[in-house]
Amino acid sequence: MEPASPIPSRTQTLRAWKEQGGGIAAVLPIHYPRALLRAFGLLPVEVWGPPRVDPAPGAAHLQPYVCSIVGNALSFLLSGGLDGTDVIIVPHACDSLQGLGSLLLDFVRPRQPVFPLYLPRGRRESDLQFLADECRALYEKLAAITGRAPSEVELMKSIRREEEADGLLAELHRRRRVLPLSDLAFYRLVRAREYLPAEEFAARARAVLDGPPADPRPGVPLLLSGIVPEPMALLDAVAEMGGAVVADDLACSGRRLYPPGTSTDPFRRMAERILNGPPDPTRGSPIAERLRHLVGMARESGARGVVFYDVKFCEPELFDLPLLRRGLQEAGLPSVHIEVDLNDPLSGQTLTRIEAFLEMVAGQPAEEARR
Amino acid sequence: MNPLLALRYHWNVNVLGPVVLRLQRWQAERRPARWDTRYLAPPLRIAPRTKELVARHWLAGRYADGYRKVAWVTSGAPVELLKALDFYVLYPENHAAICGTARLAVDIASEAEGAGYSRDLCSYARTDIGAVLSGKTPVGRLPKPDVLFACTNICQTVLFWYRALAEYFGAPLVLIDTPFVYTEEAAEHAVRYVRRQLEEAVPVLERIAGKRLDERKLRQVGLLSKRASELWLEILQRCRHRPAPISVFDQFIQMAPIVEMRGDPETVDFYAALLKEVDARIAAGVGAVKNERKRVLWDNLPIWYRLRYLAEFLARHGVAVVVSTYTNAWGELAPLIDPDDLWESMARTYIYPILNRGTGHKLRTMRQMVEEYQLDGAILHSDRSCKPYSIGQMDQRDRLIREVGVPALLLEADHNDFRAFAEEQVATRLAAFVEMLG
Ligand code: SF4
Ligand code: SF4
């Protein structure tokens, strides 16, 4: 259950884009205006860790109680992993990413310019206005380093291209259970949104969506929440143990299903899209809203349990967990919490816990789960 | 307002309470010093008064429910708005620090951990949530909030934490989001954004308070806040004197009013009296450390449950910790407050706390302190619980050593959770540091 043509890797994509004369923006998690970067001919290539790097270079700057997304990103940068990129964008999501952005600017000082982007924590008019201004400020900085000044028309064109890709991404999520893809293949495809040009991603998504539907995948239906499904072998392991991921609240995917914008001002529209995304603690969404969202997703997808798959030391996730898990339990949805370090291999302990969880969920009458 | 609750409040807070607290102060004034006076100066004469002032604040909170509107507030929040609307203002961080000093924090935090809050979360937040869930507190009782008022100028953690409190109490959460200042100057659109949020908060707070904001009162509170912060800064700057009249351990204890009673007239009186005492010490040649040989700075939060241990250990070796980026934070912004242009100056003041500024800014602050306070070294408390304060310290330490030429120690601990304090390791590292100081 793999798509017909293999999805190019980050490195292949980056190389191909550069050969066409484009620039590369390395982007840290989580939310940022893709369309703005593309309007400057910069391909956003996201850096979620990456997993399994030598953590030593980052450990010379960061204490061991900082999450491995941040630690690995710094190690990767220091060991030359971002050498092929032209600019580094550090969106603000949490104290750790804030610290990383600051460290890069003040002490590490990589060859590439580093541009932080502050994300407001509400959805008020003042938040929208601020984020639009923040995008405008980023525009000025990008203009200064690229020597380009995309017009409003070009910006809107870029926004529409991303909106189309995001629409298809959302459709993939909606129909995931009847797509002819294993969980692993599904995540390879949706996570390619982290680096493929929007049009290329859209073409691949369309090819899958236009194909004949498959029989619903068997297995105990699960909702996967957390940050990032690494190592990706986890997904095959879950399937082998009799589970099927049917809904997603991951920071790297489900929390970034941005709806199309409405404003005719390109900067407001970019801001609007980010702020109207699904609930996310790093955007300050109330816990009750997150809970409603999770329960709603579980009802729609038929998920009977929730796996919170978090990166160790992630405060935004850890603060919400107790109330979310309690609320889910009250809604008849059991949950399990797993914490990983991006450098750890898939552990036997993790697998045992997921297996036990699947057995427990499978043993529960389905009606109870739908209560 | 329920007249019985009003009566109860007045009786306990204005009649009976002050008598009991005065008596306790009288007893405290006569108690022998608990810290080792072979190496340390006798305790500040004002210390019992500090205790009385702080205790009175918590006493008022204990009886506030149903009589006064209550706001739970983050330590860097623009409290002037709340004061001008007569809210009783409670600082969960201060409450957690009280629990830490009394060595109750771990017991109370365990209640939160039992409910699923990870030990990797900020220990202030765990202590507070534990207190909410269990009712355990050394201050008698915590009043329920009518509003939660969070400002992100110290960390994002407070927002995650207050979102949980909002669920527990069903109370509205008013957020003042202050974009992090990565470079020297905050962007104009960021200042505009903070100002707009301050203005937008007013009708929400007015509705909860049941009264209109009186601009004259706000100005008055702003003036008092500025004056108290100026006095606090003056007190800290007196430590440029050799020997330093007070140490950061004194400052940690004496800072409670500037955090939780900023904007009150009593706070101004209190710091004026403290300044007098500090000046008297200078005049008499009294140093906080009796044999001050070396002077160092402290970075990051205090280790609340080991203040005395650290003070005595260092004093024994003639090391005075005379300045801290932490206590300085409540004074350094005083010049920015302009009661004649309050809204704009509040926006600027509250976007610029050290914790909302880059790692390079903190290093510059420390370098300046080394110069102005003639320091011989620096202790950087790497606080497991406080990522915003701690990230950057490894580079800051390296540069202090390499570029400024002073020994600098990274001390691993946690401000409230003694389970993260390895006594032997700390002693060994401190001893090695003292040796390097010479
Ligand atoms: S994993 Fe959590 S703590 Fe780490 S960067 Fe992401 S949001 Fe921040
Ligand atoms: S100790 Fe640090 S993380 Fe905790 S509330 Fe204070 S500033 Fe935030």
Tell me what the structure shows:
The complex is a heterodimer of chains A (371) and B (438). Chain A is α/β, with parallel strands linked by helices and 371 residues long. Chain A has a domain at 10-146: Rossmann fold (3-Layer(aba) Sandwich). In chain A, 49% of the residues lie in helices and 13% in strands. Chain A is built from 15 helices and eight strands. In chain A, helix 5 links the parallel strand 3 (87-91) and strand 4. The longest helix of chain A is centred in the middle third of the chain and has 23 residues, at 152-174. Chain B has 438 residues and is α/β, with parallel strands linked by helices. Chain B has one domain. In chain B, the strands form two sheets. A four-stranded parallel β-sheet of chain B has the order 2-1-3-4, with helices on both faces. A four-stranded parallel β-sheet of chain B has the order 6-5-7-8, with helices on both faces. The mean pLDDT of chain B is 96. The chains are: A alpha/beta (371), B alpha/beta (438). Chains A and B meet through helix 5, helix 6 and helix 13 of A and helix 7, helix 8, helix 16, helix 17 and helix 18 of B. Residues 29, 67, 69-70, 93-94, 96-97, 227, 282, 311, 314-316 of chain A line the site of one iron/sulfur cluster (SF4).
